[in-house]
Amino acid sequence: MRIAICDDEPREQEQFEEALKGWDPTRSAEKFLDGASLIEAAKRLPHFDLVFLDIYLPGESGVDIARSLQEVSPGTGIAFVTTSTEHAVDAFSLHALHYLVKPVTTEGVVETFRRLTELRSKRRESITLMVGSEWNTVYLDQISLLENDGHAVNISLSDGRRLKVWQNFGELQGKLDGSFLQINRGLIVNMDYIVRMGADTCTLEDGSCLPIAVRHSAAIRAAYGNYVFDRLSRRKELQ
Question: For position 163, what pLDDT does the model report?
Answer without folding.
Answer: 93
